[in-house]
Amino acid sequence: MRLRRKTVAVDDNAGVTREPDDVITARLISLGSVMESSAFMEYTLRNAFCSLVGSKYAAIVAGGQPVGWLIEQCRALTDAHRDMPRQHREAIKAALERCRAASERRNLLVHGVKTASRAGGSALGTAPPAHQRSRPGRLTPSTKPPANSSRPT
Known about the structure:
- It is a single chain.
- By secondary structure, the chain is mostly helical.
- The protein has 4 helices and 6 strands; from the N terminus they run E-E-E-E-H-H-H-H-E-E.
- Helices cover about 50% and strands about 10% of the residues.
- The strands form 3 sheets. A two-stranded antiparallel ribbon has the order 1-2. The protein has a two-stranded antiparallel sheet with strand order 3-4.
């Protein structure tokens, strides 16, 4: 960190001291990995939706839909496919639940407010964006949006 033209090393709470540029670069690389994985998950969900619908027009409907919509539609379509063995439907719904949880974590990481940690060093916490906080103006470590949240994921 630069303070009045001085470079101050940052302790990363693991006994390793790195320059701040290294810490920022590592965080940006990690964020890029999350974004790449998120894009692939969304692509996979669109393909799953199209397969479950079984129409050549499904891709038109799925195009531009948010991840939360894709997950819910895939869940409903999976329930409707009674010809599919029960264990397959359950496996698909379990995978969709993991996608939902990953999407929530991704949204918190990408859209949350970055805060300094009380642990010191280079530790960084993330608080949910204002529309997801349980009390206005207060940063909370909650990762689950309130039930009445109308914002799409």
